[in-house]
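My current task is to audit a protein record that another person submitted. I need someone to confirm that the token line plausibly describes how this chain folds. Take the sequence as given and treat only the tokens as open to question. This is what I was given:
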Amino acid sequence: MPIPGRYDLSAKWLKQLLAHFSEQGGDAMEVAQCQQAPHERAQLATLAVQFGLLASQGSDFHQPCAWIELGRKLWLPAGVEGVWHSWEAAAE
């Protein structure tokens, strides 16, 4: 699920959305974006763990600009697993 932190949803509705997404076979959600408050990233990581979702990093870079640098600040919090780890298992 892309950028769940950007949807205009209360915490209750975001949890319901993620629960439904997971129940329908969704397996990952975007946890990290380059311009993101640390508490938001931590909250999204907690939700990913809660709903059994893998974590991805925002990569929708559109163009260079003064406040966004490609690939910067895209670390994942401890406790979440990057979605790319599942690709290795699928390739075997």
Remarks:
- The first strand starts at residue 28 and ends at 32.
- Residues 19 and 34 are 25 Å apart (CA to CA).
